[in-house]
């Protein structure tokens, strides 16, 4: 496993809806985390961006030392 780093992540949908705004998080190798928050705060959208199912509008997603924003 490798570390995961989200730096200044944004998700904007057409029409100007911002689902995730300036989200930064660092997860170390073998670290366990949970995302909690109210409905509609961007938890699922963040997980979908990490999984590559949603495009990142702005910011950087690293797995280890590799930038993976545009990896298919």
From TrEMBL:
<dbReference type="GO" id="GO:0016887">
    <property type="term" value="F:ATP hydrolysis activity"/>
</dbReference>
<protein>
    <submittedName>
        <fullName>ABC superfamily ATP binding cassette transporter, ABC protein</fullName>
    </submittedName>
</protein>
<dbReference type="InterPro" id="IPR047641">
    <property type="entry name" value="ABC_transpr_MalK/UgpC-like"/>
</dbReference>
<dbReference type="Pfam" id="PF00005">
    <property type="entry name" value="ABC_tran"/>
</dbReference>
<dbReference type="InterPro" id="IPR003439">
    <property type="entry name" value="ABC_transporter-like_ATP-bd"/>
</dbReference>
<dbReference type="GO" id="GO:0005524">
    <property type="term" value="F:ATP binding"/>
</dbReference>
<feature type="domain" description="ABC transporter">
    <location>
        <begin position="21"/>
        <end position="66"/>
    </location>
</feature>
<dbReference type="GO" id="GO:0055052">
    <property type="term" value="C:ATP-binding cassette (ABC) transporter complex, substrate-binding subunit-containing"/>
</dbReference>
<dbReference type="InterPro" id="IPR027417">
    <property type="entry name" value="P-loop_NTPase"/>
</dbReference>
């Amino acid at each position: 496993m490798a570390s995961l780093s989200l730096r200044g992540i944004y998700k904007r949908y057409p029409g100007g809806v911002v689902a995730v705004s300036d989200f930064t998080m660092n997860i170390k190798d073998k670290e366990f985390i949970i995302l909690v928050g109210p409905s509609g705060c961007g938890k699922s959208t963040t997980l979908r961006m990490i999984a590559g199912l949603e495009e990142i509008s702005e910011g950087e997603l690293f797995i280890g030392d590799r930038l993976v924003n545009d990896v298919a």
